[in-house]
Design goal:
CATH topology of the largest domain: Four Helix Bundle (Hemerythrin (Met), subunit A)
Distance between the termini: 24 Å
Strand order of the largest sheet: 1-3-2
Number of strands: 3
Strand content: under 5%
Order of helices and strands: HEHHEEHHHHHHH
CATH architecture of the largest domain: Up-down Bundle
Number of domains: 2
CATH superfamily of the largest domain: GntR ligand-binding domain-like
Number of helices: 10
Shape: globular
CATH class of the largest domain: Mainly Alpha
Length: about 230
């Protein structure tokens, strides 16, 4: 993602939502890295929208824990420690393992068709080598399962975690071998889901998230970006 991609040209009624999506993706892609100070005036210029729209988007991002208040009430992109990332994935394992099991047990054919479509999109973006679009497709994959597991509580809690790990996922995908391994894990998960094997799907989801957790934590331990950003706060 580049700074020129931030500019919004849309129906005024949708400006706030577009601003939110653009800023969320800018954070996920690393355009605005952890610790980066966010200045309203600069964001207005980059997005081409009013300060009101930017403030509304920033408030939502703060509620999602993607940005935080720094010194002198400045806003900065939130810094995620290796310990925080590890805990986030541990909670994801609990929630999403249960979610995929319920998804299979419910047997909603429309939901399964939607998941198959997203799985194909993941393959497509992998072959194209577009990490941002691949990360977004992965988020849609998990959200499709959560939205159709039959539990609003699981969906609401887990969705907040997905938003927080999108940047970590984008980063970990750049690790040697992680993309191919992750794709194999998604394929095994889909095989179990389409076969109607709820226990197998839960096992595959757990293993996938164990591996994803290890990759995400490793990116924070071997790359000093987050530590440097934290020092700026």
């Amino acid at each position: 993602m580049k700074y020129q991609d931030l500019k919004i040209t849309a129906n005024p009624a949708l400006v706030r939502d577009h601003a939110l999506d653009k800023l969320r993706n800018a954070i996920s892609s690393g355009l605005y890295p952890p610790g980066k100070r966010l200045i309203e005036r600069e964001l207005c210029e980059a997005l081409g929208v009013s300060r009101t729209s930017v403030r509304e988007a920033l408030r939502q991002l703060q509620s999602e824990n993607l940005i935080e208040i720094g010194q002198r009430r400045t806003l900065r992109v939130a810094v995620i420690s290796a310990e925080d990332a590890s805990d986030v994935y541990l909670v994801r394992m609990k929630l999403e393992t249960e979610a995929v099991k319920r998804f299979v047990e419910l047997g909603d054919k429309t939901a399964l068709k939607a998941l198959v479509r997203v799985h194909k999109e993941i393959h497509k973006q992998l072959h194209k080598g577009d990490l941002l679009e691949l990360s977004l497709a992965a988020s849609e994959f998990y959200e499709t399962i959560l939205a159709n597991c039959g539990s609003k509580v699981i969906y609401d809690i887990a969705r907040q975690l997905l938003v927080r790990v999108q940047y970590l996922r984008y980063r970990s995908m750049s690790m040697p071998g992680r993309l191919d391994a992750g794709m194999d894990e998604w394929d095994r998960l889909m095989d179990a889901i389409t076969a109607g094997d709820a226990d197998g799907a839960a096992k595959a989801m757990t293993q996938h998230l164990v591996n994803a957790r290890a990759a995400a934590v490793a990116t924070l331990e071997v790359n000093p970006l987050e530590a440097e950003a934290a020092g700026e706060m």
